[in-house]
Amino acid sequence: MKILIAIGGIDFSKPTLNMGMEIASAFEASSTIAYVGKKISQFSEKDVSVVHQSLDNRQLYRPGIRTLEWACNFLETKGYIDSNSSANFDDHLLIDEDNSRMKVLLKSKNSDNIDLILRTGEIIDQLRDEVFSNGHDITVVGGGKNKGIYHDLIEFIHSSILVVKNFSFNKKYKILLPINNTKGSKKATEMAIRLAQHYKTEIHIVYVKDKKEKDVVKSIETTSNQLSKLKIKNETFFLEGDPVKSITKFAKDDYIISLGVSNKNPIKNFFFGSKPISISKQCNCPVLLVK
């Protein structure tokens, strides 16, 4: 499995990188940490290069390089890569791979499953290309104020999406698993199991009653029995009312939600909305949208 962790400003990216690496550990996955910056025009890049050569101001030369340096130091501190691997971190560790992607050459024997990259261009386009080109299974993004970006991420990036909100290592998280009869729900259950095993925690199954769905009770019983056989403590809650409002109200900030996403046509989702997108916007906890 491959995890893509999208980071931005240093002040806001610590929870995203923190949880992203936790998820990578939970799934024993390789991870790519990506910073997407604005593309510099050919003229302005030449000017900045001159400044770089004359003043040796590397921070001007490549926007985002300091963020990647911070990420590298973070990985060191948390023990994901060897200590002192970023001691001489500078622009010259960046290797051009194409017009919009550069890779950091990590000097660490424990970094085989970790990549640091810098991409330039529109964030959705660059993340979509990164996922498509390198086969990432989960894209981890911060739950910032720009909630409109969730829609584009979920609809146009072909991987599961983890929206990191209000994440803290000091919280004892439980897994919240909304369930129905869809294929997405089954995949979300598989993800929830891996998370529960990693965090050594319980799973709370929730179902919002819907007259249109049949045999859901049987699916819930099957899921609960599956969890019990795996020695995962679980409990089932039946909710009523609007699914988005009910789940949002139920989900406290000490939950990680594992939620299946349907394969509905993106055009239809744009005009008629999407319950998973709405839940990820409104809940104040991490939400894993499973495709």
Mean residue pLDDT: 81
- Report strand %: 15-25%
CATH structural fold name of the largest domain:
Rossmann fold
Sheet with the most strands: spatial strand order:
3-4-5-2-1-6-7-12-11-8-9-10
Instruction: Report the order of strands and helices.
Output: EHEHHHEEEHEHEEHEHEHEHHE
Core attributes:
single chain, 291 residues, alpha/beta, Rossmann fold, 2 domains, elongated
Give a brief rundown of this model.
The chain is of the alpha/beta class and 291 residues long. It is built from 11 helices and 12 strands.
Characterize the structure shown.
This protein is an alpha/beta fold and 291 residues long. The protein has 2 domains: 2-164, 3-Layer(aba) Sandwich (Rossmann fold), CATH 3.40.50.620; 174-290, Rossmann fold, CATH 3.40.50. 42% of the residues lie in helices and 22% in strands. It has 11 helices and 12 strands. The protein has helices at 10-26, 42-55, 58-61, 65-77, 123-134, 148-156, 183-199, 216-229, 243-250, 266-272, 275-282, and strands at residues 2-7, 30-37, 94-96, 101-104, 114-120, 138-142, 160-164, 174-178, 203-208, 234-239, 255-260, 287-290. Strands 3-4-5-2-1-6-7-12-11-8-9-10 form a 12-stranded mixed sheet, sandwiched between helices. α6 (148-156) links the parallel β6 (138-142) and β7. α9 (243-250) packs parallel to α11 (275-282).
